[in-house]
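Hello, quick one for you while I still have it in my head. No rush at all, and the record is pasted right below.
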Amino acid sequence: MTLSRAHVAELAAQLDRRHQSLLEEVRDELEHSENQQYIELIGRVPPDVGDQSVGDALADLNLAIIDRHVRELRDIDAAKLRIAAGNYGVCIDCGESIGYERLRAYPTAKRCRPCQQKREKTYAHEGTPSL
């Protein structure tokens, strides 16, 4: 079943709202990336190694949050390009329709549920640290 124009318009509006929200969050994170706690910890004389580690962890956490938001912004942009190209809601693996309910829950989905499950099982080990 292909998506109706009304469904695509609704999902596009949802993507636009999320895009705007993420941009604001990224701006806020960047403005506050010089976390006051980090500045205070680093500014101590003499600096404590434990405080330095906590400060570094806070900075890394801020960067991880920003990175996650940027990846989501890219996914939204890709979904908007699929809308413009007329292939939004079509699985990139099998070419079948992605269900409307799946897209409502996850509007940047590029795979149908069966293909996504298969991909997750196939690539589940990637990104998992091992010793």
About this structure: Residues 5-122 form a domain with the Four Helix Bundle (Hemerythrin (Met), subunit A) fold (CATH 1.20.120.910). The chain has one domain: 5-122.
